[in-house]
Amino acid sequence: MGKTWIGAILALLASASGWAVEVHDVRLWRAPDNTRIVFDLTGPTEHKLIVLDNPRRIVVDIENASLKSDLGQLQLEKTPISRVRSGVREGDDLRIVLDLSAQVDPRSFALTANEQAGDRLVLDLYDKQSGAGSTAAAPTSVKKSVKQSAKRDIIIAIDAGHGGEDPGAIGPKRRREKVVVLAIAKELNALLKADKGFQPTLIRTGDYYVSLKGRRDLARKRQADLFVSIHADAFKRKEAHGASVYALSTRGATSTAAGYLAQRENAADLVGGVSLSDKDDVLAGVLADLSMTSTLDTSLKLGSVVLGKVDGVAKLHKKQVEQAGFAVLKSPDIPSILVETGFISNPEESRKLVSSSYQKKMARAIHAGIKDWFLAHPPSGTLIAWQKQQGGRQYTIARGDTLSGIAQRFRVPLADLKSYNSISGNGSSIRIGQKLLIPTT
Which pTM does this prediction carry? Predict the structure, then answer.
């Protein structure tokens, strides 16, 4: 007998016996444009959402339920909620009242128990952009900026996996994937920000959940030239180890492990909490588009360059880019890769993943791969493409090279060489194999 049937029978028995469903925990997350409240339930139940004015408030009535959590522990700062209170309605129902300090657009939906999480009631409060007192955070607006006669930046969308109520994989000592990958994503963002001709944008900037489709949509809205999703792997056997790079497969996984990983990552919406209305109805069309474009080919080639750089930092799980049906990678027009930075389920790699030094090394490796690819294959209309056309020369740093020596060899001012390649300071950070663009004299 499956877990679903057992749950249904228990729910029926509870109803017949007059047992109340318990709200055993209430959790809150703030995202840039919404506030999410999750009520963890001991079983399924019905609810009703009521919006009231004068004063402004939202009422949630949960049928045949009792509250076993402390609402006073919720962190309401920077949210449109000024106070949360509870009461009993008609003897058996639980009433939750949210007093509001700003206008919101509320949505609610129930999630049934699955292998990742129990029954939940999810309440999303979307900020209204207009009106006094709005708590909406300024949206991250990324435009392909114009520099030097319409020579735009290359935009890199950096996606830290999981977040909010979805911790991702859990390692020894309760180490959480969502924390590790956000730290690496922020390091990568800082590195790309310092590069002339590149403009990074973080899909997730804090501890909140974004749906898999929502991540793709944000990348497209921000007109990204590359989508890179950062994760920390997990497997049933703690001996599994190594970093990996993945691209989308439209036919099936390249290995059993790749298929298992894609299945686990695609289930993130079940934990993160996505309503049924968020299903991607155009998936077949997206896959058809992918087969007719060079997007997937670019993803594989770019992923291979990144994998080569990661090889210098971590042991590799596989020596080639793997493929599987990752939902987060299904953008038809944006090259997309997923980087598994190590197995957080492996005790040794878990210790590395939570260390700041390893996070920085991994970010530098991913950064080096991305930068090397785009220096060699810049999108048309970009500053990097213009520089490549003007210079027409690219140099790969070899052992013993110095910036001053390279500048002297090509008879260009050292300052111009550094500026052209976004190198600051004394240039001590250059590395063997790094590609430099040589400016024209």
Answer: 0.76
Structure tokens at 373: 């690819």
C-alpha radius of gyration, the chain, whole number: 25
Architecture of domain 146-275+282-376: 3-Layer(aba) Sandwich (3.40)
pLDDT tens, position by position, 252-263: 655 556 565 556
Distance CA 279, CA 61 (A): 27
CA distances from residue 268 to 22, 271, 286 in whole angstroms, order as listed: 25, 5, 20
Confidence grade of residue 142 (pLDDT, cut at 50, 70, 90): low
- Buried/exposed 117-144: b ≥16 CB within 10 Å, e otherwise: bbbbbbbbbbbeeeeeeebbeeeeebeb
Rounded to an integer, the average pLDDT of 383-392 is 77
The DSSP result for 230-278, as a single string, is EEEE--SSTT---BEEEEE-SS--SSHHHHHHHHHHHTHHHHHT--GGG
Tokens standing for 337?
Answer: 């890769």
Name the amino acid, one letter, at 405: G
DSSP assignment of 146-198? EETTTEEPEEEEEEE--BTTB--SB-GGG-BHHHHHHHHHHHHHHHHHTSTTE
Domain borders along the chain are 16-127, 146-275+282-376, 392-437
Helix (H) or strand (E) holding 228: strand 226-233
Q: Which CATH code for domain 16-127?
A: 2.60.40.3500
DSSP string, 47-84: EEEEEETTTTEEEEEETTEEE-S-GGGS--TTSSEEEE
For 317, residues 6+ apart whose C-beta sits below 8 A from its C-beta are 233, 240, 241, 242, 243, 244, 257, 340, 343
SS3 of the chain: helix, strand, coil, percent, to 5: 35, 25, 40
What is the distance between the alpha carbons of residues 107 and 126, in angstroms, rounded to a whole number?
Answer: 8
Cis peptide before 439 (omega within 30 of 0): no
**Taking the alpha carbons of 359, 361, 363, 366 in that order, is the dihedral positive or negative?**
negative
- Collect all residues with Cβ–Cβ distance below 8 Å to 178 and sequence separation of at least 6: 160, 161, 162, 163, 164, 166, 167, 168, 207
**CA–CA separation, 19 vs 1, rounded Å?**
23
